[in-house]
Design goal:
Strands 1, 2, 3, 4, 5, 6, 7, 8 and 9 form a 9-stranded mixed sheet that branches. Strand 7 and strand 8 (198-205) form a beta hairpin. The chain contains 6 helices and 9 strands; from the N terminus they run αβαββαβββαββααβ. The protein is an alpha+beta fold and 263 residues long. The radius of gyration is 22 Å and the shape is elongated. 26% of the residues lie in helices and 25% in strands.
């Protein structure tokens, strides 16, 4: 073997060793058994389960970065995360990963992206759905707010939705004492619709504050129940005070259903 061939092999080895590859994971989970997505001390999280399974299969410590974080008990039908690794792997990783993960976390696909593409910062929008059961239903106890004792006006709630588009500062719906640098969000869609005995609230925005959707839903329900008028929502938002808004809706009715990217 010539010196040039040896030098070339060394170059290829060093390139493969020091070059990292970035992959995206698309997955879903039932949040009932988790204290949210993000890792936290002495509490079970979705991120911890994913990292543990990936690290076991790939035989190196893997850290993942999610598109966002959901609170305790909140579900995700479609969410993404990214991780870096130095060695490429075959397309069977999704299947193997699902074998290692608990039944309430499911990986749909894993695919390569550019090495600077970010699951959180490159997301262009996020969409949530919130479900309310209008009748007592034992089969939706873990997936909807059981609000059947008092009727709700969907017309009044949709009238209030239109007001959300007039504002960008949603401090009134933000969880207190967080590390948010800004409470500015751009809402693209907000509407209620009835599907049989269930109400579904769909809301899309470029970003959401912690607890924001549940606080909006709790306030909307007060409007739907007649405790507030739709136009009262303007004062709630303009006060920029969490105490002005309604109580947060229960976690089990909330689903992250989509995260958008320009791949």
């Amino acid at each position: 073997m010539t010196f040039q061939q040896i030098f070339h092999k060394i170059k290829v080895f060093l390139w493969s060793y020091y070059t990292t590859l970035r992959y995206f994971i698309e997955f879903s989970y039932n949040g009932k058994n988790y204290f949210g997505y993000q890792i936290q001390p002495d509490a079970n999280s979705v991120q911890e389960e994913l990292e543990k399974a990936l690290s076991t299969i790939l035989r190196e410590e893997i850290k993942i970065t999610g598109a966002g974080r959901t609170d305790t008990g909140v579900h995700a039908k479609k969410i993404f995360a990214h991780f870096d690794i130095q060695v490429a792997f075959n397309d069977q990783l999704s299947h193997r990963l699902n074998s290692f993960l608990p039944p309430d976390i499911a990986v749909k696909r894993i695919f390569p992206v550019k090495d600077d593409f970010h699951a959180r910062f490159d997301a262009t929008y996020r969409t949530y759905e919130y479900y309310i059961s209008l009748e007592k239903n034992p089969f939706t106890l873990e997936s909807a707010w059981q609000h059947w004792k008092r009727p709700l006006s969907i017309d009044a709630m949709n009238e209030a939705c239109k007001i959300l588009f007039e504002y960008e500062d949603f401090t009134s719906f933000a969880k207190l004492k967080t590390d948010n640098k800004t409470n500015i969000c751009h809402i693209y869609k907000a509407e209620w619709e009835q599907e049989g005995s269930e109400l579904k609230f769909t809301v899309s925005a470029n970003r959401f504050l912690r607890n924001m959707v549940r606080a909006i839903v709790g306030t909307m329900v007060e409007i739907g129940a007649g405790k507030m008028k739709p136009e009262d929502l303007r004062k709630v938002i303009e006060n920029k005070n969490r105490n002005s808004a309604g109580t947060s809706a229960p976690a089990q009715g909330l689903f992250l259903v989509d995260v958008g990217y320009e791949f």
